[in-house]
Amino acid sequence: MMTLKALQLPLVVQSPMASCTDLPFRLMGRAHGMRFAFLEMISSEALVRNVPQTAELMRTVPEDRPLGAQLVGCDPQIMGEAAAKIEALGYDVVDMNLGCPVPKIVSKGGGSMLLREPHTAEQIFRCVVRAVKRIPVTVKMRLGFSDPSGHEAAAIARIAEACGVDAISVHGRTREQGYRGVADYEAIGRVKAAVTIPVIGNGDVVDAASALRLRAVSGCDGVMLGRGALGNPWIYHQIHAALSGAPVPPPPDAVARKAALLRHVELQVQHDSWPLGPLHRVACWYFQHLPGVAEYRHQVNRVRSVEELKMVIEAFPVARSDRHFEG
Ligand SMILES: Cc1cc2nc3c(=O)[nH]c(=O)nc-3n(C[C@H](O)[C@H](O)[C@H](O)COP(=O)(O)O)c2cc1C
Q1: 208 CA to middle of ligand 1, Å?
Q2: pLDDT tens, residue by residue, 61-98
């Protein structure tokens, strides 16, 4: 049986991110020390109804482990049924989404709307915990719907704990904030203080220093990475090192970034039946903040084939000063 304790502590978890944390992204991460990742969120209804697109989102390979699946939805019975299916399919954790801010989800009562519906949230937790026999059940939430203090999340966290949920993760922003502003690590600490189950902090972790700050300020049991890992698979080794007190590996130079991006392109071609769509995004992730990226982005947006894209990537200027880690 898979338990959270079986994972090395402190937990460093890759968060679910729609249209981002697909199989090629995860395989790149695994090659650079990613230990635990989530699929992007899956609609519980679509999973129960066997919608083919959902199977596509859930594609994995044996080396892509341990791997969690996250469910979004607001019908307790359907969430329970979908959770049982996730366990039967062999995923290692089932997570419930109480953070999604997207109007399409919130207007139906799912995602972050459940922070305002503690009774429904409780029914969902009970149904999912009852439906799942062997794997851990977790909840990912925001600080609140509009109240940034963390009290809303703390109340939901207590309910989750009482229902038998194994761990929670907390994004230090409200639904109203979306992705704006700064994640509040002190407010995450208030949620941590409200329960005894492990709490994983999330928001604005972009390097070893921010991971250490999140842990120190919130007292959380682990850190969850989001956007900071896009085009930056080196972050896993950096954060593992920082959290265990080891020297943090230096950031990659532009040559290493280019090589990694070309590898990501290969993986996308190998595992995606329409790779060019996601690759337009992926190709911009790896060179962000480097000189010359504005013109490069413009070129990436115009390519119409993977071959063309590879030529644009190869042509990206790697200045001498960007090669300082070469031997
Ligand atoms: C493009 C995108 C897609 C996301 N999709 C999901 C999702 O499917 N499920 C979820 O719980 N959170 C999702 N999130 C939220 C992230 O998992 C994370 O909580 C948030 O980005 C905060 O972390 P960060 O500041 O480190 O990026 C998404 C975020 C982004 C930017």
Answers
A1: 19
A2: 999 999 999 999 999 999 999 999 999 999 999 999 99
